[in-house]
Design goal:
559 residues, alpha/beta, seven-stranded mixed beta sheet, four-stranded antiparallel beta sheet, 15 helices, globular, binds flavin-adenine dinucleotide
Length: 559
């Protein structure tokens, strides 16, 4: 199959029109001279993590708290491994971006005094089913933004060490895109689908994280030699069993306690009630034969039950439907909970691009924001907005007096030939699904997945590393009969690159700093000498590790 080559030019290319990407684009558009392209593999109206909506703003500075408190909280939750400078820059702007979202139509619940209704210390309640269409409308209304929906970006166009644009393809039409730009902002979210998921077969995409965020931004950065940080801080969510719907709505929303099969509250037996402890305690109770574990909802009033139905319809409708289908709502049965497979996601944990405070990566001209950017966990929706805004302001400054740089026709041809190589009308020995399932099995069994209670050791990680290398070789021989299959091939290749880097990070953090997220059976305790960032750069086929010192709140870090 031959691809038609289409060449575009813009001032700033935003890759991924999700939470951070849309907010970045709207910020960029305020400078009238900026021409912006937003390229998204889906349609920005309902793409990424916000596709189904959210029912709370989880990062907000409520009355009585300060941005400094927020930094302290995130630091405690991450056992010290955060970029305080990044988290602080987010914390200072959380409330501004929330106001901006309210001004474009987001419904934030208010009490009789007109104050936002809080959910815990750092969260406020919203009616957020339509949060993504609201954002997308804002983007689509700007004259200087051109949105390319259904365009999957695969790699940066590099000139020496600088990014000068990106390659992509349409996922339905036979079009190969060359998009030149003076700066690029990567906002492709985190990586799901690396590990064997909770649900098999047809339901495999019923997972916590967006199944379409397959680590493309990480993989592009890895292949281009960008420095990455903290991949070994995986994120595992504690979710409602089977539907994989969030539990915060019940745990924080109505204060339901975690109980085991004997209805005993168990989290207190495992330490301070941090996010990780709630997960680890559940895994341990199950391991000891004291599961299933639940959120205790039996006995709540019919009014509260009704509220829960509505809250889940705003965000994870499957949970409401399950209760209705069962014929028993949460007032009559406790809500069973389980841990998901591990994800790599910089918005909950700290994995991603190593950036400075302007969100510039180590590659000149390339910025990263949202779940793809590392160092600042617990950023959630509003933190992604703030990062999008910061990256947009920095990119606007960066492109002043800059020209577009072009690459030679030979380089363009060779990328087109590479893509067309997958689009041959011939059977490959293995299917895309075979490779995906093999990767997930390897990661599950040898790199600390659900079946191993998230625990790994050095020997297992070395086995995983060898098998992922084999799968990378096999993946280059996959064949696609159309553009959608080409997309799927890229999704699996990108995830294999993320796995490759992740395994090296897990090997190099020779301690157990975070239960479940990074539990190394060979090094069961924390090592205070490892109060450092594990960073890596991919070069000549090898992942090279560098340790970096912690950055404090008021320090100025420069690449
Ligand atoms: C189920 C769930 C519930 C959540 N609930 C809450 C909540 O209640 N409150 C809260 O504050 N936070 C919540 N969060 C967290 C929050 O939603 C995320 O942290 C945030 O939305 C991530 O934003 P992002 O811009 O990094 O990624 P996304 O918004 O996911 O955007 C990534 C975009 O990149 C596109 N993309 C990916 N790869 C490519 C490619 N190769 N080429 C082109 N485009 C690409 C995707 O299509 C997508 O549009 C939740 C997250 C999840 C998954």
């Amino acid at each position: 199959m031959k691809l038609e080559t289409r060449i575009l030019e813009t001032d700033i290319l935003v890759i991924g029109g999700g939470t951070a990407g849309c907010y970045a684009a709207v910020t960029l558009s305020k400078e009238e001279k900026n021409n912006i392209i937003v390229a998204d593999k889906a349609n920005i109206k309902r793409s990424g993590c916000l596709a189904a909506g959210v029912n709370a703003i989880n990062a907000y500075i409520n009355k009585g708290y300060t941005p400094e408190d927020f930094v302290d909280y995130v630091k405690k939750e991450a056992s010290g491994i955060i970029r305080e400078d990044l988290v602080y820059s987010i914390a200072k702007n959380l409330n501004n971006v929330t106001k901006n979202m309210e001004s474009i139509g987001l419904t934030i619940l208010k009490d009789s005094q007109g104050e936002y209704v809080t959910r815990g210390k750092r969260s406020i309640k919203i009616n957020g089913e339509n949060i993504k269409p609201l954002l997308a409308n804002e983007v689509n209304s700007k004259k200087n933004i051109n949105v390319l929906n259904k365009v999957n970006i695969v790699d940066y166009i590099m000139q020496e060490d600088t990014v000068v644009g990106a390659y992509g393809f349409h996922i339905e039409e036979n079009i190969f895109y060359i998009i030149y730009s003076k700066a690029v902002i990567c906002t492709t979210g985190g990586a799901s689908g690396l590990y064997k998921p909770n649900n098999p077969g047809f339901s495999k995409h019923k997972m916590w994280y967006s199944p379409f965020n397959t680590g493309a931004g990480y993989a592009m950065g890895i292949r281009a030699g960008a420095e990455m940080t903290s991949f070994e801080m995986r994120f595992i969510a504690l979710r409602c069993k089977d539907t994989i719907a969030p539990t915060g709505t019940v745990a924080q929303g109505i204060g339901a306690k975690q109980v085991n099969a004997n209805e005993n509250e168990y989290v207190k037996n495992y330490g301070k009630p941090l996010t990780i402890t709630r997960l680890y305690a559940t895994v341990e109770e199950n391991r000891k034969g004291q599961g299933p574990c639940y959120l205790k909802t039996k006995g709540i009033s019919k009014e509260v039950e009704e509220e829960l139905y509505k809250a889940y319809l705003n965000m994870a409708p499957a949970q409401t439907l399950k209760w209705i289908e069962d014929g028993y709502g949460p007032s009559m049965q406790n809500l069973e909970i389980e841990g998901t497979e591990p994800y790599i996601v910089g918005g909950h944990a700290a994995s991603g691009y190593w950036v400075d405070v302007t969100r510039s990566t180590t590659i000149p001209g390339l910025y990263a924001a949202g779940d793809v950017a590392g160092g600042s966990p617990k950023k959630y929706v509003t933190g992604c907005f703030v990062e999008g805004e910061i990256a947009a302001d920095a990119a606007t400054e960066f492109i002043k007096n800059k020209k577009i740089n072009y690459i030679g026709q030979e380089e363009i041809n060779s990328k087109a030939i590479y893509l067309e190589g997958f689009l041959k009308d011939e059977e490959s020995l293995f299917s895309i699904n075979n490779v995906e399932e093999a990767m997930q099995k390897v990661m599950d069994e040898y790199a600390g997945g659900i079946s191993k209670n998230y625990v790994f050791n050095t020997t297992r990680l070395h086995i995983a590393s060898g098998k992922i290398e084999e799968l990378l070789v096999i993946s280059s021989k996959l064949r696609a009969k159309d553009m959608r299959e080409l997309l799927q091939i890229y999704e699996v290749i990108d995830r294999l690159y993320v796995c490759k880097v992740l395994i090296v990070h897990l090997l190099f953090r020779k301690e157990t700093r975070w239960k479940c997220y990074g539990e190394n059976a060979d090094y069961k305790e924390k090592d205070e000498n490892l109060l450092k960032y594990v960073n890596s750069i991919y070069k000549d086929g090898k992942v090279q590790v560098v340790f970096r010192n912690l950055v404090k709140r008021d320090e100025v870090y420069e690449h």
